[in-house]
């Protein structure tokens, strides 16, 4: 019902309103609701002094682990957002590939309000329907037999590391709870990969500067060269390797798709070595490539897959999907998380999943990705500093032969938010999957102007 009314709202153009969400229409079927009262109003426009004040207080009170852009974002709608001074941006970052449905989507909000009114959190001491509903969707639409929920991408990889290590101990036939027992425990990852910043995931992550301040790293990590099967073959060893972690399309590393033969070869090497193949689809999964799962592009299935960013459209969630043989190794008490899979986030994630898991939606992502890459080639391609425009679906990178920070800043001044990747020499575009053709075209024009300004020919 909510969905139907939302579609009607779209048809009548009500959704395009800048300052009022169409939430009243979408939530009209809900029982008396405080949520209806919280409909977005146009926030007050502030001046540059106010922006300075907020940034100053952020520096005073928040731990300084981020180099933030000097803007204070106030609100958003679809692929657009506004800062507190009223300046409009096209958001090609989407909270780093998170806001798949864009900002303040009416169905997303309706799902949030509907569940918030009933039950937000119980911990995993009890059963709740939304968690089961989400697990059912993920399992029935993937290679997996079980889902484990957590709260972030790094936590999903942390879980997958533990599942792989315990699976290897069970496979080895030792008592997994014996401190004296030994079994394969090595984990392999690849150059330029990013798997997160907690200690296990960080050990797998490539960039040394993320790791050295926190030495020593978790032992048992082996690094191989991405897209080089011989390099992988040299470190994947029977009796030593527990699991191999790989992003089917590398995100942070520079928007680099795996080669088909590489992923197929990894599958074979893992099978021969009795090791697990784990796909990290935290960034490339759930529709971003134009396929539901990034690995569908390759016809290779993993034993485990990690997910996070877009799954609840902006609420924190992560998940590990597992084949039954891995799931069988885990017992109650082996792993857990207080917040994980709570009914609020899972109910919203079901809505996000249902919208994305529609062949028409996924085909549109593919088309929009083609349009974006073609547009960027047209507007930026003649600049000698542009070496390549690459990617799949709406996971797009522009490889420069210089640092991309200047282009990012110039584009922001002109009203387009993009981010960097790789060694800082790639412009990364990961917009909301609902971005319009018009917004894509405008973004391409702006980026063409931005690189012409920063690096005139
Ligand atoms: C492929 C991949 N894995 C893991 C992570 C870590 O996710 P989170 O920042 O939610 O911990 C990221 C984040 O960018 C990622 O791109």
TrEMBL record:
Localization annotation: Mitochondrion
Enzyme Commission number(s): 2.6.1.11
Biological process according to GO: L-arginine biosynthetic process
This protein's pathway: Amino-acid biosynthesis; L-arginine biosynthesis; N(2)-acetyl-L-ornithine from L-glutamate: step 4/4
Highest rank taxon of the organism: Eukaryota
Transmembrane regions: none
Major enzyme class: transferase
InterPro entries according to UniProt: AcOrn/SuccOrn_fam, Aminotrans_3, Aminotrans_3_PPA_site, Class-III_PLP-dep_AT, PyrdxlP-dep_Trfase, PyrdxlP-dep_Trfase_major, PyrdxlP-dep_Trfase_small
Keyword terms: Amino-acid biosynthesis, Aminotransferase, Pyridoxal phosphate, Transferase
Cofactors demanded by this protein: pyridoxal 5'-phosphate
GO molecular function, a single term: N2-acetyl-L-ornithine:2-oxoglutarate 5-aminotransferase activity
UniProt xrefs under Pfam families: Aminotran_3 (PF00202)
Annotated PANTHER family: ACETYLORNITHINE AMINOTRANSFERASE, MITOCHONDRIAL, AMINOTRANSFERASE CLASS III
Family (UniProt): Belongs to the class-III pyridoxal-phosphate-dependent aminotransferase family.
Name of the protein in question: acetylornithine transaminase
Species per Swiss-Prot/TrEMBL record: Astrephomene gubernaculifera
